[in-house]
Specification:
Shape: globular
Number of strands: 11
Strand content: 15-25%
Largest sheet: 8 strands, parallel, barrel
Number of helices: 13
Strand order of the largest sheet: 1-2-3-4-5-8-10-11
């Protein structure tokens, strides 16, 4: 069942975070649904601009519609990740998405406010939910590229003003995470002090953590053994998810980890079975591995076991 992120956030706020997982193809979609059903977790499917153009946006939408029928017990939202204004409007008018993210964080504050307000007005007119971003995460993820020198943490006072002026439903905050597989060095971590100040100014308001893949070191090690070159990859400590949830983070974005699982499974499969040219055995291995990864991640998020409660609340 497709619902809005706002409905999920009402149930999660202050208790746990909803996993927001990016997908690009059939195998990721099946693994994602299986993992969330196995762990009894509500979830958010994220579709990026890159995913929409990978084949054709209708192809991925069709896969998700089919999964909704195959797994009728699932409760999830369908969300556009890092959209510009034109892409947001296209998704709002498509009738498929339940939530969109407008990312004008690279623009000056006033321009970010103006763009976000236009998207909010259009989305709310159709009953859809809007996420926006304030502050800038470093790193690289598809078309989003921000150098570490240009990255900046979200200002708590600006966050309050931004939400009040735009009417946005949730806010992605820059609190020290970054996009991609190379997030941290040394002892660097999340800025819980900044997050706490934002929550003080925006009590009971849903906050979002982008760039929150954990970059599991075992996955990195196995990828490198199988010929990869990911030296120095490091992500967010998953044990920090629940403390962040207690401070108002209700949505945590995870994309890179899914790519790492895909990379590891396929590298190992074709090294161990060089005679194999059938895509399906490797695909089956990936779906099972990704389902296990999702179920484990939901435990860290606190969303595992919450599905029945969410269903009852939405009834």
């Amino acid at each position: 069942m497709i619902v809005t992120t706002k409905e999920l956030f009402k149930q999660a706020y202050g208790k746990y975070a909803i996993g927001a997982y990016n997908i690009n193809n059939l195998e990721q979609c099946m693994g994602l649904f299986r993992g969330n059903i196995a762990s009894k977790a509500p979830f958010i499917i994220q579709i990026s601009k890159g995913a929409r153009s990978y084949t054709n946006k209708l192809m991925l939408e069709g896969i998700i519609r089919a999964a909704d029928q195959v797994f009728p017990e699932a409760i999830f939202a369908v969300h556009l990740d890092h959209g510009d204004e034109a892409t947001c409007m296209d998704c709002i008018n498509s009738g498929f998405y339940s939530s969109v993210m407008i990312d004008a964080s690279a623009k000056p504050f006033e321009e970010n406010v103006a763009i976000t307000k236009r998207v909010v007005d259009a989305a709310h007119a159709k009953g859809l939910v809007v996420e926006a971003e304030l502050g800038q995460l470093g790193g690289v993820e598809e078309h989003v590229q921000v150098s570490e020198s240009d990255a900046k943490l979200t200002d708590p006072d600006q966050a309050k003003e931004f939400v009040e002026r735009t009417g946005v439903d949730s806010l992605a905050c820059a609190i020290g995470t970054s996009h991609g597989a190379f997030k941290f060095s040394g002892t660097q971590g999340l800025h819980f002090d900044v997050l706490a100040e934002i929550q003080k100014r925006l009590p009971n308001f849903p906050l979002v953590m982008h760039g929150s893949s954990s970059v599991p070191q075992d996955e990195v090690r196995r990828i490198n053994i199988a010929g990869g070159k990911l030296a120095g990859a490091k992500g967010v400590d998953a044990d920090q998810f629940l403390p962040a949830a207690k401070l108002g983070v209700t949505k945590i974005n995870i994309d890179t980890d899914g790519r790492l699982v895909w990379c590891r499974v396929h590298r190992e499969h074709f090294i161990l079975k060089p005679e194999d040219f059938d895509l399906r055995p490797a695909g089956k291995e990936f779906m099972a591995a990704y389902a296990d990864f999702i179920a484990d991640k939901n435990v860290k998020l606190g969303s595992a076991g919450q599905l029945d409660a969410v269903r009852a609340a939405l009834a």
